[in-house]
Amino acid sequence: MALVQGTVWLLIILDPIGNLPLFMAATQNQDSPRRRAIFSLATIAAFLVLLVFMVGGKSILSLFKVTLADLQVAGGLLLLIFAIRILISGHESIENVQEPSIVPLACPLLAGPGAITAVLVLQAAHGLFLTATMLVISFTVTWVILLFGEKVFQLLGKTGSALLAQAMGLLLATIAVQFIRSGLENLFRA
């Protein structure tokens, strides 16, 4: 059950379908093979960023004397702001970015503060192996969705993509509130 819940959390936060319009806009001047290469590189880079935080995140936090509860509140607030922006104005355009695979596609779109917080929370709750499994599954699904992104985008159209982005924004907001609530509970317990 934890594997499924954690994987679904990560997929909602990674939001490959909701981010698809941004990925398409960032690569609008690319042909299909180049677009798929950019999407693959972005997925691999984001996976590696989250893997580093999963393995070394506690050390990074302790270096700055930041607790997991602090990160839950901060990451939850940032995720909530991002979700509210999606709900109010939809995904913003990122056209005319020179090399979008790393910034902004890999980080912060896929491996943003919400995903980093989620990985650290999941790792603290379920351990390294289970969290790594969640990461591998969620990034595999994300990669497949992005590889078929052109077809998915054509199938959904702009209206369908916008509607889906709104639904994902609402789910992101609820996960953000859960992060904030858990972080505050842990802070007041300490």
Descriptive account of the structure:
With 190 residues, the protein is mainly α. The protein has one domain (2-189). The chain is built from seven helices and no strands. The chain has helices at residues 2-14, 16-26, 32-63, 68-89, 101-110, 113-147, 149-189. α3 (32-63) crosses α5 (101-110) and α4 (68-89) packs across α7. The radius of gyration is 16 Å and the shape is globular. It starts with a helix and ends with a helix. The model has no long low-confidence stretch (mean pLDDT 86).
Helix content: over 70%
In terms of DSSP E residues, the strand content is: under 5%
Shape field = globular
Number of strands: 0
Uncertain ranges: none
Order of helices and strands: HHHHHHH
In short, what is this structure?
By secondary structure, the protein is mainly alpha-helical.
Q: What are the salient characteristics of this protein?
A:
globular; 190 residues; 7 helices; 86% helix; mainly alpha
Strand and helix layout:
Elements lengths: L1 H13 L1 H11 L5 H32 L4 H22 L11 H10 L2 H35 L1 H41 L1
Helix pairs in contact: 1-6, 2-6, 2-7, 3-5, 3-6, 4-6, 4-7, 6-7
